[in-house]
Design brief:
iron-sulfur; globular; binds guanosine-5'-monophosphate; Rossmann fold; about 450 residues; binds iron/sulfur cluster; Glutamine Phosphoribosylpyrophosphate, subunit 1, domain 1; 7-stranded antiparallel sheet; alpha+beta; binds magnesium ion
Length: about 450
């Protein structure tokens, strides 16, 4: 998912709208904006792309200087309008809006407990637990209530929460999901990725720290820690696949990181080939790195159709397969008669890769060698990347040679775990370079609660 917020700007709804557009790659299943005019919260949300959810009239009707916004990528809780964020709650104390990126691993357990104590949940999203915990806190201010509630949550979260008067943002103690702070004149902007700060003309100030709670109101911006320090573990998949290349995650540019991954891949697994191609969009940077390192000419061998209507419903396997067919085409003039090395960032279920190899062969490629710019994904993600919903990770049951057979390539290799860590280029003095590698290594930075594990045991 993508989270965006602005405080102290007369055009808050428009800023949120453009911010969400830049975060669209983080979620296409729903979008919402909540705005406060200082007296009450008003909002609009819906299923689908940002462009489809909002009209100019709707944006203009959301008047105020404070806003929280969200694009949804359904992992926990499934699809449906009731799960589209920000979640909005009203009580006689006023309004509350919550936008969340990440996934809580103990939400089910907390939810059962809260229900037994009388709570009634209006969504199936893990995020709603925070609202109930905030509501139950006896503390006075929203920030204090959140500081009470957050230590109870386990897992991944970057939160933007607001009432009529203030914005409170927080990042989980491991910093699993990114969250950055920027300035737009006198206003403050918070976004999952720095590309959204750039789009709205905000200047990057700093990242929200893991375990930091930041309150932004009329008196300014106040920071506190709500929990003691934990091991840093930003999601490595953000660098590999999820984030936009023009974003900097904890001050490392995503395009540059992917390019380094591609270079390492070429060092670890060279191949004789005539052209090096990437799978748009997420693997282009790695393919350029592979080409640069190997001396094999980089070519545009695959074209992505950007205008395929994204599905409004939860992507099922059947839809994914059909989506792939409509989305990519091979450039015959580039690949016909050639030995092609195709760089991609991940093989999750194997469907995409098998299909692309076939596309390239149909277009006349003489050989197709596949190189993946990260290690095999063998373990589910419990922190908000949707490999956790599949249970169909091809690398969890098949060897590299077997996967090569399934996708029909002439050869297949994956970057090593060491290559991934070094290539991303984070601080090597920190354990695992301060990043989560769990879907590759199986070492999760948090406890995985039984209620979260059960659905994946087969
Ligand atoms: P699959 O192997 O499941 O067919 O899909 C892998 C391809 O889809 C890669 O090209 C990757 O860029 C993209 N992809 C789609 N969804 C995900 C996801 O949740 N995680 C990762 N790592 N890649 C994904
Ligand atoms: Fe990211 Fe993988 Fe860790 Fe999930 S398990 S947070 S996808 S690195
Ligand atoms: Mg891809």
């Amino acid at each position: 998912c993508g989270v965006f917020a602005v405080a102290g700007h007369a055009g808050a709804s428009e800023i949120c709208y453009y911010g969400l557009h830049s975060l669209q790659h983080r979620g296409q299943e729903g979008a919402g904006i909540v705005i406060s005019d200082g007296k009450r919260l008003q909002y609009h949300k819906g299923l689908g792309l940002v462009h489809d959810v909002f009209t100019r009239e709707q944006l203009e009707s959301l008047k105020g200087t404070l806003g929280v916004a969200h694009v949804r990528y359904a992992t926990a809780g499934g699809g449906g309008l009731q799960n589209v964020q920000p979640l909005v709650f009203q009580s006689h104390h006023g309004g509350l809006a919550i936008a969340h990126n990440g996934n809580l691993v103990n939400a089910e357990r907390l939810k059962e407990q809260l229900e037994d104590e009388g709570a009634i949940f209006q969504s199936t999203s893990d995020t709603e637990v925070l609202a109930h915990l905030i509501r139950r806190s006896r503390s006075r201010t929203l920030a204090e209530k959140m500081a009470n509630a957050l230590p109870l949550l386990k897992g991944a979260y970057s939160f933007a929460v607001m009432d009529e008067h203030q914005l409170v943002v927080a990042r989980d103690p491991h910093g699993l999901r990114p969250l950055s702070l920027g300035r737009l004149g006198d206003a403050w902007v918070v976004a999952s990725e720095t590309c959204a700060l750039d789009t709205v003309g905000a200047v990057f100030e700093r990242d929200i720290e893991p375990g930091e709670l930041l309150v932004i109101d009329e008196s300014g911006c106040h920071s506190q820690r709500f929990i003691s320090k934990a091991m840093r573990a930003i999601c490595s998949m953000e660098y590999v696949y999820f984030a936009r290349p023009d974003s900097d995650l904890e001050e490392i540019n995503v395009h540059a990181a992917r390019k380094r991954l591609g270079k390492r891949l070429a060092e670890e697994f060279p191949i004789e080939a005539d052209v090096a191609i990437g799978v748009p969009d997420s693997s282009i940077s790695a393919a350029i790195g592979y080409a640069e390192q190997s001396g094999i000419p980089y070519e545009v061998g695959l074209i992505k159709n950007r205008y395929i209507a994204r599905t409004f419903i939860q992507p099922s396997q059947a839809l994914r397969e059909r989506g792939v067919k409509m989305k990519l085409s091979a450039v015959r003039g580039v690949v016909a008669g050639q030995r092609v090395v195709m760089i991609d960032d991940s093989i999750v279920r194997g469907t995409t890769c098998r299909h692309i190899v076939q596309l390239l062969r149909d277009a006349g490629a003489k050989e197709v060698h596949v190189r993946i710019s990260a290690p095999p994904i063998k373990h589910p993600c419990f922190y908000g990347i949707d490999t956790s919903t599949s249970g169909e990770l091809i690398a969890s049951s098949l060897s590299v040679a077997e996967i090569c057979d399934v996708i029909g390539a002439d050869s297949l290799e994956f970057l090593s775990l060491e290559g991934l860590q070094a290539g991303i280029g984070r601080d090597a003095s920190m354990p695992q370079c301060g990043q989560c590698l769990a879907c590759y290594s199986g070492h999760y930075p948090t406890a995985i609660y039984p209620s979260t594990v059960l659905p994946y045991e087969k």
